[in-house]
Amino acid sequence: MGKEVVIGLVGKPSSGKSTTLNALTDANAKVGAFPFTTIDPNKATGYVEVECACARFSKEDRCKPTYGYCRNGKRGVPVQLLDVAGLVPNAHLGRGLGNKFLADLTEADCLIHIVDVSGTTDAEGKSTRGYDPLKDIEWLQEEIFRWIMGNLMDRWGSVVRRHVATKASNLDTLGQQLGGYAANRQLVGKALDLLPGLRPLQDWDQQTIEQVIRAFMKVKFPTVLALNKMDHPDSDKNVSKIILKHPDSKCVLTSSVTEVLLRKLARDNYVKYDSGTEFVDTVEDLGPESRLRPLDEKLHNRIENIKDLVLYRFGSTGVVQLLQSAIGLLGLIPVYPVRNINSFTGASGDSVFRDCVLVKRGSTVISVARKLLGEATIASIEGVGGTRVAEEDTVDVKKNDILSFKIVPGGSSHA
Question: Are 230 and 133 in contact (CB under 8 A)?
Fold first, then answer.
């Protein structure tokens, strides 16, 4: 199946990381099977919401995903979440969980850094007032930087000697040196492309090495900043400051604690809540036929407050947008392999769009086939309307994103 996408969640104690993780993994109570073979203690399944192909063909009522869920054309596609524990100052020195923390990070394709933007917790997560959350963002970047830099500088002399002796290219040598961070040659190449006109590696000074590592971090650890506790009165000024200082970063304003509460109220049948939006309805809004439970005054006021301070002001709690932003940063889009291109059904039954995979936008159709079917011999590929699709065609949103692969008999497959 190829490597699964892994999204790492980092955040200091009391930033709201566990609350965010709960909100991302809940998916309104657990759903069916999981596509992942191993779930470590610090791994969980999250669901990224995408617009499902069933909505394009008005087949929402027949859409039953094998994994994840589909509700009224909104599909939750499973992704692996990695809870990166133990964010501690000076992790790069290997203190406490430091090395484990940094090693865990490398497994992730993308990071979501949960930042307490209210400034009410200090660097250690203890209660305070007026702390500058910019420090947390810089701290994480610096920690990763010093770790990679330290590892490389420890052996720099011998790296340069080998580089010269073997007449290697910059990419050859760095591909080897940075491969240990779960980075393939292509990724290292992408980092070097950010720095055109680099001199041969033996002529690099300290400043050049630092630039190369920062470029590598950019491609290896793309990061979504979750500016959490956005409804706190002190948050506004901090949000503005962070966005000014990090204009190129993807920032999402969140209130995880609100999301968790609204989902609990929906489960307990006090409200109807459409996660990812500003819509929350009570029995007063929908009438007794909604069968929602009546609210006492305290709960009624609490929900009104949430509407005013969070939902109407920000448009949503921001939690659903976190995973959407992460797959956006990774350039991933949903692709739907079907057995029957005319009915969109699978191998059995009449449910449509059973399967959905996230692939890099612009991938070739054949690379999607390989991800799904391994080395099976493919006789032909069809797109919507039964049109033939060439192996070298590429996929994009609503372009070659619904595909049927015909296998040569005897060419093994499990589609």
Answer: no
110-116 vs 6-10, strand pairing mode: parallel
* Shared domain check, 249 and 368: no
DSSP conformation class of 184: -
Rounded Cα gap, residues 223 and 273, in angstroms = 29
Q: What is the CA radius of gyration of the chain?
A: 24
Per DSSP, the three-state class of 227 is: strand
Model pTM score: 0.90
Any domain includes 415: no
Contacts 24+ apart (CB under 8 A), 177-185: 177/152, 178/148, 178/216, 178/220, 180/151, 181/106, 181/148, 181/220, 182/106, 182/107, 183/106, 183/216, 183/220
Q: pLDDT tens across 395-411, in order?
A: 999 999 999 999 888 65
Domain boundary among 294, 314, 330: 330
Q: Are residues 403 and 305 in the same domain?
A: no
Helix axes 134-154, 235-245, angle to 10 degrees: 40
For 87-106, how does the pLDDT look when each residue is reduced to its tens digit (9 = 90+)? Answer: 666 666 665 555 677 788 88
Domain boundary among 308, 330, 352: 330
